[in-house]
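Record filed below.
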Amino acid sequence: MESSEIEGIARKLDRIIALGGAPVDTGRGEFLRATTELVASAQGTRAATLLWLWDPDNALLSLSRYYSNVTPEEHIPQLCRVTAARVDGVWQVGLRHQAAIAAWAEKHGLGIEREILPIVLTDRKGSLSEAESGFAGVLQILSNRAIPEPDRLILGPLARAFALLLQRSRDQRQIEALHLMHSGSVAQTRHRWLSLAAKTLCKITTARACVVFLQEHDRRLRALASFPANEHIESHIAVSNSLTGLIAQRGKGVRILDFTNPAERKKAFQTTDYDAPLLQALERDFLGNQPLRSWLAEPIVIASHSTAVVMLLNKGSALHLAETFSKTDELILQHVCSFLAGVLPGVQMYRAADRISRLALPDSLDTEASRTQLYDLLRDLVPGMLGAALFRSEPDSESPVTLLLGGEEWTSTINAPGVARKIVKGDGNERFHYLIDVDEYATLIVGLQRKQISGYEEKMLAFFCKEMSHVLRAERSIDEVRQQKVQMRHAVRAGLTGIIGNIKSVRGMYALYQRDRKPYFIDQPDFGESLHKIDAAAKKTQLILEESRFLIQEITRASLRVGSIVISRLIREVVEGLKFEAESRGIAIQFNNNLPILIEKVQGDHQLVELMVFNIIDNAIKYSSRDRDVLVTLGVDRTYWWQLIVSDFGTYIRPDDHEVIFRPFVRRPTGRAARTRPGTGVGLAVSRSIAEAHGGTIVPASHPIEDSSSEIAFTSFTVRIPRVVPSLLMPGEGSLPE
């Protein structure tokens, strides 16, 4: 081989290498043109290069594009179905003896010399891919002259360079599909995501249109998004037994090369039935009344109750002769649908959670407007809902109440939460009631026509119930505050009524004095009794107002004025202050200090701790039987918390009332004598708040005395409080080693 021939081959190889790195959007066309020019380098040579791409699923080759130096590109539909097979490691392509190719080549003077170059893709390491997965198609070279032997040396590198370009092109399309993942966020709507996906798929696959159908509980497939956008998109509905419906049911995509061929549809679906009205609407609104030729569809399983079908219609581009969707198009669609299957549940959950978190009822649940708002939200969270209700069992209520939020009336009783109960209505249709706990006092019941709810629905209902628990807790707090205010108003009014009534009696006696100018009214027994009642009523009213401020202004750990307290001295001073009251009822207070002197200093709010101790001992004096002792014992428990036990022989407190007595203005002792005892019903509530603010507890206990002929019980209140307030506790402090 002469040096000039070697130099010519080197120049052609340099051009081939440059073409292998050309931009993917123009690289294929440039490569075919350059290949034709390299083959037709001799003057007067007619040549054409055809690119055939392999479809492994259908075992055929489709003409993608070609370049000829003697004729412009034209559509050759006869050349779209050619087979290929691997025989003894060599690809045998049925192009040589294809009559249509021969006729076309003869027409343009290209029928003498033909070369077929298999295009085999390699993996990232440069080795050949496996058999069919590596075969991507062929380059067919037609020429009216034999290719010179020196030029034949470049055919192998030519095929490998084009395989590299084809691989880069496919990778680029995959990258464009990946850009979809970074173009949105979970805060966007489902419709926005699907519209963006439709636009991206049309660009990458050169589809004429993309339509996305959504199927939920009613099993009807409604078009939700499309590209190009169409204002009548929601009018496109696919029935469940149509081809679109079968894809949703089977959960597997389908690619049909020739939709007009019933045999292909039957091969793909085992049926030739399809939605003729839907097809006509798609052709009218998206294809400009052109027939549907090629069809590619893939399902998206969003949740067990929700499936979407993405449908690509008619592949077509000025750069491509093939009118069928390729295997690469199918892989790209699967990749995009797989991504959407991951992101759409998150989008739905984000928007549902955001909507639930913004829940603001116009009024209490007793109003129809609030119940309707809740039910509308529930129907959006769980499509196909037939009814919803709240089963409420309030703390002070003996009979639970079923509050209908909306939908069907309820005829069933409550089962265990999380269990669907089958109900057959009068119309013969089955209903399933699903129960979810809201809190310890309320249960949400939803009625469905199916036995199961999806994991997504379960999460949304759980989140809904969590928000509802806040609403119900707020309602209970408001009711409790309202009830406290009413009771406080009644208590203050009762005190003022006693004061006013007895002042009126005293003023009547004073009027007699002014008339007769004789102070004999002072000796009247009613005078002294009225003054005593005025004094008692005034003190009681003052005590109510004093203790009620602790209910209005909540006692918290942050509000404490913490200092050092000698707890034994504080309790002794309280006992001394209450001795006069105790002795007036024939009661002796016995104080036993068992607290070691080394740990008698504790931390706490001196004023509040003194009030708590006063209330508990005063309560024991008031409810103790006359001529009985009240026992006050100070000590330490096993954890070295200081412990105060105040015991008396008096009124029995039932176990059911152990929590009730700590509610403001509630007085629940048993027996007529107990109900006549003085008190406001606030002291124990305030005392527990003080103990809990210090990190402690107050626990009552009451045991009837069996051998007693009267209603007498041994009752005690045990206060346990850490020596150091928890918020001030440092490592190693607050307790002594056992």
In short: The chain is about 40% helix and 25% strand. The radius of gyration is 45 Å.
